[in-house]
Amino acid sequence: MKVALLSLFFIIIIALQVPSLVKQKMWRELVAYSVLMVVAMFYSFGLALDMPLPNPARVVEIVFTPVTSMIHKVLS
């Protein structure tokens, strides 16, 4: 049931957003939207199916730890 409702939710969102992007010929935005939507769909379906998924906060931590340590060195 969760998967069916989630599928319906994504179909509605895509049906509302994609035609206007195509009509306005916003190809770069359509590509960015598609990539983000696919990532969101995989992660959402994984959560709905109780699959073990990586924590997105860990990715943010890995990316920003060097930046924050560099800023800390500059300011101290």
Overview of the structural elements:
It is a single chain. The chain has 76 residues and is mostly helical. 84% of the residues lie in helices and 0% in strands. The protein is built from 3 helices and no strands. The protein has helices at 2-23, 27-48, 56-75. Helix 1 (2-23) runs antiparallel to helix 2 (27-48). It is flat and about 50 Å long. The chain starts with a helix and ends with a helix.
Features:
76 residues, mainly alpha, 3 helices, 84% helix
Instruction: Report low-confidence residues grouped into runs of 5 or more.
Output: none
What's the β-strand tally? 0
* Major pleated sheet: none
What value does the average pLDDT take? 94
N-to-C order of helices and strands: HHH
Strand content: under 5%
How much helix is in the residues?
over 70%
**Coarse shape:** flat
N- and C-termini, Cα separation: 54 Å
Q: Which structural class fits the helix and strand makeup?
A: mainly alpha
Total of helices: 3
Radius of gyration: 18 Å
Give the helix/strand layout:
Elements lengths: L1 H22 L3 H22 L7 H20 L1
